[in-house]
Design brief:
By secondary structure, this protein is of the alpha/beta class. Among the domains are: about 40 residues; about 180 residues, Leucine-rich repeat, LRR (right-handed beta-alpha superhelix). A 14-stranded parallel beta sheet has the order 1-2-3-4-5-6-7-8-9-10-11-12-13-14. Helix 12 links the parallel strand 6 and strand 7. Helix 2 packs antiparallel against helix 3 and helix 9 runs parallel beside helix 10. This is F-box domain-containing protein. It comes from Glomus cerebriforme.
């Protein structure tokens, strides 16, 4: 029974592995709880929302494992170790560790010394002891690393088991060449692009991976005015193109790079349709040309897609993806910039109402499990009718983003209020019980009376958050109404 209890506790604590506050509390219950929690906490001791810079205990525990001769050498270099270093630890903590985070380790290094050279020596010793002692390395965050850890003793045996690697392009290409020689079974690769130099070592690292399933690229330039000498994207994307048979999750977050804009967008339009096994596709701040999207319409076929976020995509391309998704879609967030659609229909036969209704039909037909959804919404009677059908079909819907596109109708303020009232009535009649959040963008406006009626009728249902970009709701009368229902436990309306 005792063994069974420990097994059950372990499963429960596994569910709390991202909740450091609860796990730290569990340490204090009794010996059994403490023994069960420690291996979970130390599997990735760098991931918790705590101030590592002041954690002398963490510093001391790592330093405890250093060989005596190494510690004596470091002391002669003026490095101070906390008293905990000389106490025998209750657990073999590093035997549980499966991860290394260079940034966190570097943040606790100044506990030992404020001198640059001494900190360099400490970094080297800490990295080495972690590489040597951790029995199986699964996660490595090596952003801004200064030591070529692949030359450490036992580095090959540890690094070749890495499952997830987080790195940045400011690390020199030769470092990635060294990693590419050892790390060839990475399944999740996160690249932070934070330098204006093209890093071809990144492309080599991607190229040698045999089972890459999850790829993420994030531009992160501190200077608003950055100037690339060479294209930082092309070689990496071409290397990624060869991983289409394995890749399931693709996330790309670009900052605007005017110099390579045309090449980048053209390349993406060529390779995106090839990733036929994608379950996740997230791309931000990319404006694909309308003409090329028309050609992509029937090429972007993702039978297993579950999460799709693209800022600028035509309604017809989105409808085509949905039609081929085989009912797996759970999160669909599109249409971030409504001005794009005004531009799209300018110069084309204006079929916005028809296309947007078709989009709603496709959601109803092919997305029964949708949980998070964005809709371009035209203020027509037919749209309200079809929207209500969607609410009845998509019973798992939790989050809804509605973007109003007038499409040249030029409604009066009174008509805008009427449409807002109709929308609120539709939500009262048919919103699924799981709905927890609604976001309104553009010309959704609600009169004080319509909003009060909505709050009254929603009372008794699960709490819902309503978010809007319209500052009309910061007026005194609206704020009084909103605060009244907040006091009743409803997180009713916030202005972004």
């Amino acid at each position: 029974m005792s063994q069974l209890n420990k097994d059950i506790l372990f499963l429960l604590f596994e569910e709390l592995q991202d909740d450091s506050k609860s796990l730290f509390s569990c340490l204090l219950v009794n010996k059994l709880w403490c023994e069960t929690v420690i291996p979970i906490l130390w599997r990735n001791p760098w991931c918790y929302n705590i101030n590592y810079k002041n954690k002398s205990y963490l510093f001391g525990i790592i330093a405890y494992y250093l060989p005596v001769s190494n510690k004596e050498f470091l002391i002669r270099q003026g490095i101070n170790f906390p008293p905990i270093l000389y106490q025998y630890p209750l657990f073999n903590y590093l035997s549980f560790c499966r991860s290394i985070n260079i940034n966190i380790i570097d943040s606790i290094i100044p506990i030992g010394s404020s001198l640059d050279y001494s900190q360099f020596l400490l970094q080297q010793e800490f990295y080495n002891i972690l590489i040597t002692t951790c029995p199986e390395l699964k996660y490595l965050d090596m952003r801004s690393i200064n030591h070529q850890i692949f030359y450490f003793p036992e580095a090959k045996a540890r690094l070749e088991t890495i499952y997830e690697l987080n790195c940045n392009t400011s690390v020199g290409p030769t470092y990635f060449y060294g990693l590419a020689r050892i790390c060839q079974n990475i399944q999740k690769l996160i690249i932070i692009n934070n330098t204006t130099k093209a890093n071809h070592g990144i492309a080599k690292l991607i190229e040698v991976q045999e089972n890459l399933k999850n790829f993420e690229w994030k531009d992160d330039f501190e200077d608003e005015y950055y100037n690339f000498i060479k294209d930082p994207y092309k070689k990496a994307l071409l290397a990624l193109e060869k991983k289409t048979d394995n890749l399931n999750h693709l996330k790309i977050f670009f900052q605007y790079v005017e110099k390579f804009e045309h090449t980048l967008y053209t390349l993406l339009q060529e390779i995106l349709p090839k990733f036929y096994k994608l379950k996740t596709l997230i791309i931000n701040d990319i404006i694909f040309s309308i003409e090329n999207q028309l050609n992509m319409n029937y090429m972007m076929v993702y039978h297993d897609i579950e999460i799709l976020y693209i800022d600028n995509i035509t309604i017809n391309v989105a409808s085509s993806i949905i039609e081929n998704s085989r009912g797996h879609l759970k999160e669909l967030l599109l249409f971030k910039y409504e001005d794009y659609y005004d531009c799209y229909y300018d110069g084309f036969e204006n079929n916005f109402d028809k296309d947007s209704l078709n989009f709603i039909h496709k959601i109803c037909e092919h997305c029964p499990s949708i949980e998070c959804l964005s809709l371009l919404f035209s203020p027509s009677k037919e749209h309200f009718t079809e929207f209500e059908k969607l609410l009845k079909v998509c019973q798992r819907l939790k989050s809804l983003l509605l973007i109003m596109v007038d499409n040249g109708k030029r409604r009066t303020f009174e008509k805008i209020l009427e449409d807002g009232e109709e929308l609120l009535k539709t939500l009262i009649r048919s919103a699924p019980t799981n709905l927890r959040e609604i976001r309104f963008f553009n010309d959704f406006k609600f009169s004080l009376q319509a909003l009060e009626e909505f709050f009254k009728k929603w009372k008794g249902r699960p709490a819902i958050s309503i978010l809007t970009t319209d500052h009309i709701y910061r007026g005194e009368d609206y704020m009084k109404l909103i605060n009244e229902y907040k006091n009743d436990g409803l997180n009713v309306l916030r202005t972004l």
